[in-house]
Design goal:
The chain is built from five helices and no strands. By secondary structure, it is an all-alpha fold. InterPro entries: Spectrin/alpha-actinin, Spectrin_repeat.
């Protein structure tokens, strides 16, 4: 990766360069201390060298910061696209069937609880995208800032839709289970009343 290569290059260059600059500075100081006839020239060259070295260090630092910022921005776009794809995939996995009887409806309800547990794991990723977008948007302007907001909004909107769909299905399954439980209770009661009626009708009638 370019960022890591430059970081290594910068570290090595700073280390080697500092040693060389220190050696030249020591030589210049020794010449000046010895009362060299070109003391003024030596001091001038020493100052120029140190200034050039400081400029180079600043350039490397600036370049390192630019590469780090670029890497962070690209990572944000990658994470946002990946999170969006996962959220959309979970949306597609949401079934429409609610069950044809109480047993299948209750089974669907258990499956949906597991599904909700799965999508809850995505909430941390969505929150991270939102936090990164808020932080990065402050550092950029214009088209890049707009692109950051578009990615964040796409993830947030898809996440809101997924949660809404999941909650809607949970309510639907709850209503379906309640309906089948009611129908079962009605059926059991009707069967019981039929049984009572048969007992009454089966008894010997008074003369």
């Amino acid at each position: 990766m370019l960022r890591d290569k430059f970081r290594e290059f910068s570290r090595d260059t700073s280390s080697i360069g500092q040693e060389r600059v220190d050696a030249v500075n020591a030589l210049a100081d020794a010449l000046i201390a010895a009362g060299h006839s070109e003391n003024a020239t030596v001091a001038e060259w020493k100052d120029g060298l140190n200034e050039a070295w400081a400029d180079l260090l600043e350039l490397m630092d600036t370049r390192s910061q630019m590469l780090a910022a670029s890497y962070e921005l690209h990572r944000f776009f990658h994470d946002a696209r990946e999170t969006l794809a996962q959220v959309q995939h979970k949306q597609q996995q949401l079934p429409e069937e609610v069950g044809r009887d109480l047993n299948t409806a209750e089974a669907m309800q258990r499956m949906h609880s597991a599904y909700e547990h799965d999508i809850q794991a995505l909430s941390a990723q969505v929150r991270q995208v939102q936090e990164d977008a808020g932080r990065l948007a402050k550092a950029y302007a214009g088209e890049k800032a707009a692109d950051i907001r578009r990615h964040e909004q796409a993830v947030s909107q898809a996440w809101a839709e997924l949660r809404g769909s999941s909650q809607g299905r949970r309510r639907l399954l709850l209503d379906t289970v309640d309906k089948f439980r009611f129908l079962r209770a009605v059926r059991d009661l009707l069967l019981w009343m039929d049984g009572v009626r048969l007992q009454i009708e089966g008894q010997e009638r008074p003369r």
